[in-house]
Design a protein that fits this description.
By secondary structure, the protein is an alpha+beta fold. It is built from 13 helices and eight strands. Keywords: Membrane, Transmembrane, Transmembrane helix.
Length: 470
């Protein structure tokens, strides 16, 4: 076969090999998850209704956290790159119309078969959003902190989301480090824009990648055995939790070309700095509130981190802070006067007296400072926490939008089935909430007897614990 600039033996074109976002994490389930978190915050004082929303959101986020653990522990190891010699195609070729991602002006490529798992984007969006929502709720909401069992359960979910967020943040940068991928085609047989993996046969790579590619395109009978019209080395890769046949190869255009990808990722990383700074700031602020109100044995003037309690006791808190400040200033001045008097008696008149504070006065100043810092931290948390959640969701959803369209539309059952499940769950919870209104008299008598027995058991447990504590 005679090779020319416009008719080489084969050409190389850049592609993106990626596993699309699973339908479980597609657009509709993700948006439903965001709506459930918002509904949990709005209805947190209702009890049973917030439990339904929180339970549905927590189980969805828990699944994403488990996948984050698996992804970070099973990252595929990239093989060493292999040099591939290709026919030299100039920039002036007419093949651009059929091959928009054509590789030109070079006869050597470095090939490292690999594939992106776009589930990493969705998992990152879910677990980080869940953590940024669960953390302030654990500080602010009385409904999730009054009962010890509920608080322990909520803390376990908090720890799970924190671990999942860390794993997702560790795994996510690997998408940026994935080497560029190529497909090899006959110049007169342009491929489709998107090609799915139809399977891989061992004969397609006999020795090195370079030898295998030249053998396929030099022998017509060998080329006819390919499942498609082009050769995709990335179809030889595998990914944990994904079927090989779900791997797609898309022609790389726009920001995803080699010469423009660095600029695209520079923009992502530039905005990522601000988002990560907000996440760290939100975490530090809310963890500090948890330490002061839940863990450290410090008794602040603020009764709790709950906004409603602080607002109800605002006059008492303000009066107490003023009283503490006045007492601290008075004690400090008293001791300063005593020290200055003793200094005048012992030292000459021209020697300046040094202001000294006793341990008691220092402790009062520290307590005053801590109470002020806690109050400012709480107000700052109320502002920065919602802002961080909104900013992160907008940022990550814009990034996911760049991954391509969803696999399924909202009309398909895989997308609207979670919404139907939550609807049935709400109806069931509402019916159970009204069980006393629809119960017969005999059922009420039986329930009263059961509750009396439960009350006696609880009173016995309280008496035993009182004896143990005394």
């Amino acid at each position: 076969m005679n090779q020319t600039a416009d008719s080489p033996l084969f050409i190389a074109e850049e592609v993106i090999c990626a596993y699309p976002i699973s339908t479980f994490y597609d657009a509709c389930p993700r948006y439903l998850f965001y709506a459930l978190l918002l509904a949990t915050c709005v209805t947190r004082w209702t009890g049973w209704l917030a439990d339904v929303f929180l339970g549905a959101a927590a189980t969805y986020a828990g699944t994403a956290a488990i996948q984050a653990f698996i992804l970070v522990s099973s990252r595929p190891k990239l093989p060493p790159s292999s040099p591939i010699t290709i026919p030299l195609v100039p920039n002036t070729t007419i093949l651009w119309d059929d091959f928009p991602a054509l590789i030109t002006e070079t006869d050597l490529l470095n090939l490292t078969p690999a594939a992106l798992d776009l589930d990493a984007d969705a998992v990152l969006a879910i677990v980080v959003t869940a953590y940024l929502t669960f953390l302030p709720l654990q500080c602010w909401s009385r409904a999730f902190s009054t009962e010890r069992a509920r608080y322990i359960l909520f803390s376990l979910w908090h720890i799970l989301m924190l671990a999942g967020s860390i794993c997702a943040l560790i795994y996510w940068p690997t998408l940026h480090n994935t080497p560029p991928q190529y497909t090899f085609c006959f110049p007169d047989l342009p491929p489709s824009t998107t090609v799915s993996n139809d399977g891989w046969e061992p004969w397609q790579r006999t020795s090195t990648w370079n030898t295998s590619i030249w053998t396929i395109f030099s022998n017509a009978s060998t080329f006819d055995q390919l499942p498609g019209i082009c050769f995709y080395p990335c179809f030889n890769t595998t990914q944990v939790l994904r079927q090989p046949t779900s791997l797609d190869a898309v022609i790389a255009t726009g920001d995803y070309r080699v010469h423009q990808r660095s600029r695209f990722w520079d923009e992502v990383i530039y905005s990522q700095r601000y988002i990560y700074s907000l996440i760290v700031l939100t975490m530090v602020v809310n963890v500090s509130l948890l330490l002061f109100f839940k863990i450290l044995p410090y008794h602040s003037r603020l009764p709790s981190a709950q906004v409603r309690c602080i607002w109800a006791a605002r006059k008492i808190i303000l009066h107490g802070l003023k009283q503490d400040f006045r007492s601290t200033v008075y004690i400090s001045r008293l001791h300063r006067t005593e020290v200055m008097e003793k200094t005048r008696q012992r030292l000459s008149v021209w020697t300046p007296a040094r202001i000294l504070f006793t341990l008691h006065a220092t402790g009062l100043w520290i307590r005053q400072l801590l109470d002020t810092v806690i109050l400012c931290t709480l107000v700052f948390s109320m502002i920065v926490s919602p802002l961080t959640v909104i900013a992160f969701v907008v940022w990550i959803e814009y990034y996911i939008h760049e991954d391509g369209p969803s696999q399924e539309t909202p009309k398909q059952v895989g997308q609207w089935s979670p919404l139907a499940s939550i609807g049935f769950l709400l109806v069931s919870a509402a019916v159970l909430k009204m069980k006393y209104w629809v119960a017969a008299r005999e059922e009420l008598d039986e329930e009263i007897g059961r509750m009396r027995g439960e009350l006696e058991r609880l009173e016995k447990m309280r008496a035993e614990r009182g004896v143990q504590e005394s």
